[in-house]
Structure formats: C-alpha cells, structure tokens
Request: fold
Amino acid sequence: MVELLLCSMLTILPDFLFRRFVQGKRLGREITLFTIWFELRWGITLCLILTLSLITTIFYFHPATKAANSVFRTVTIMPEAAGRVAETFVELNQRVTAGQPLFRLDSTKQEAAVETARRKIAEVESAMAGAKSKLAEADGRIGQARAALKQASDELKAREDLQRRSPGSVAVRDIERMRVQVTNQQGAVEAALASRAGALSELESKLPAEKASAEAALAEGEVDIKKTLVVAATDGTLQQFALRPGDVVNPMLRPAGILVPARRATALIAGFGQIEAQVMKVGMIGEVTCIAMPWRIVPMVVTEVQTVIASGQVRATDQLVSVEKMAAPGTITVIMEPLYAGQLDDLPQGGSCIANAYTNSYAALQSPNLGVLQRFGLHAIATVGLVHAMILRIQALLLPIQVLVFGGH
Reply:
C-alpha cells in the first residue's frame, strides 16, 4: 500500500492535475467514474509498473522476515540411570543455582553394593594377614627341612667315610637307607620352598589384586550413590518439574523436567528466503520489532550467515529419500545481534520478532570505476530502503492492535 501511494504520487496524481487544470476538464463532467480509466490510463499503467518494480527492488535488496526468534536451549533433567524418587528438594518454577540438589533416587541397591565391597576389602585384608602367617610358617619349615637335610647328609657322609676306611664295618643296606633319607629331605626342602613361593605370590600378587578390585568396586558403588543425587547443571528456572517421592524416572522414557538456563537474549536467529542468498552478507545493518517489546525498533547487525539450508539435510536411514519430499524451500539462517549492547535485555527468551535487513552500497560507491547509471542505481537502491524502514515502523505501530484487538486476545 505504501509503495502504491508513493508511485501514484509520481504518476496518477500528475496525470490528473494536468487534465484538471491544464486541459480544463471538470470532475463529474469530462472526468467521471466511468472515464477515469480512459482519461488516466497512462498514469494508472505507469503506477502499476512502477509499484511492482519498487516492491521487487525493496524486498530483494532490503529483505524482511517474520521468522525471527530469540531461540534458547533447555537442559533436560534426568538421572544417569533409572530409579525411584526417594526425596525432592525443589518445586515447579523455582529458580535454582548450579550444583543445587533437585531430587534424590532410592539408593538401597547402591548402598548394599558399597557394603559388599567394604566387606570384601575386610575379607582380603584378613586373608593377607593369614598369608603373612603362612609365609612365616613356610620360612620355619624351610629351616627345619634344611637342618634335617644337613643332618642326613652328614650322617651319610660319615658312614661312607667309615666304609672306605674299614670295608664291611657298615652294612650296605644302612648306607642305601641314608641315601634315600637324604633324597627325602631334599624333597622336603624343595616342597617347603615351593610352599613359601606360593604364600609369597598370594601375599604380593593375588591378594593385592583382589583388594584393588574390591576397592574399585567400592569406589564405583560410592559414585553410583552420588549419582542418585541429581543437581542443577546451571543456573535457571525449573519447568515441567512435578516429581514426587515414589515416582519412577527413566533417562530413556521419562525425564524429570526441564531446566531453562538463566540467560538474557543476546541475539536473534532469523530465516530469510532463498532468493536473498546473494544479498545477505555479514555486517548488514538491520532493524527488528518484537511482540514482547511493542512500539520499539531495535537496530541490529548481521553477524553470521549460515552457508547451508536445513531443508536439504540428508542422513543415513534404512530407506532411500525421495527428492520430492524436500521440495519445500527452506530459509537462509541468519544470526542478528543488537548494534548496541543491552537493547534486547527486555526480550524474553523465545520471543518472536519482525526483522529487516538493509543492503549497504557505501563500499561499492567508493569505487572510481563506477559509471553514472551504476551510481544512480546504487543510490536508488539505498534510498528505497527508507520505504521498508517506514513499513517496519507502521508494523510496529499496528502490531499491538493486531494482536490484542484483531487477534482476539
């Protein structure tokens, strides 16, 4: 409508004034409702052409969108394992700080596992004390076996010496019996050494490994007990939190609630049409008006332009994706931040806005190689941005009326 009014002032209005005051035609006589088209046909035609051209130029070089939102991320509240709620410490819509306890799950099973691990550690420590006693006993048996071996060896040697000095003085059978006894004592010494090695291995390897395993189980159980206490990961406000003692929560099926981080809106994410892909650039100046901040225009700047369009995303599935399912054109995602800090502090997270972006031709106009028509075109493009700025201000003025009166709120 604004473009039509502006164009009519340059076409239809001069045509009418020429026919009325120059040609002397009178309203109701020569110029009537039935002769308007014939009398003003050139002005009406030029007005329509100019209006369409102006609208196309404005919306291409100075794009606008109603899909501008202050998006935010929520934190899902859930334990690492399923369990039954034993106690809750907060209520719905309560503000919490990072590390504040939210609820606690029943930890009977985990406490039993911790107690079992502690008893296993005590059992292993008792076995280690017994192994030390066995090691001392083995040392004693080694000494006893070595002494018996030495005694048998000495007696065998004495009898063999006597047999050499006085053959027949000692029975051959006695010598053979002593040799067998020496062999038995040698085996006893080796058995005692093996027994000591087994006790030493049990004391230095097996039992410490069992103790370390039990201590690891104890640490794991203590960690599991700590996991039954769910705390807030960040400062924020609890939403959809309605847990009561006895409820069962499951990280796969039933989360406990949602935590909305306590942050202010610092940027907007806007979706512009694909036709503006060659126009949207980082550094473009823009403006927004938001439903939650009526009658306010906030200057913005484009800080990032996403290089991909979400509607073309493909991920691996067990079915081939038909291209016709992606026929709906997506939008170019643009991040816009306030030109001055703090201007979006009053905007609630998730607020919807109307955004304009304006093409800046200042750098192009500094080139000395531009012709006259090119300079005129760039100046004209920059000038018609004023129309879009006027439209945004009219929208900001009418937005509360549309929402409250015509929207039925």
About this structure: Helices lie at 2-10, 12-22, 36-39, 41-61, 108-165, 172-227, 362-365, 372-406. The chain has a mean pLDDT of 82. The first strand starts at residue 64 and ends at 69.
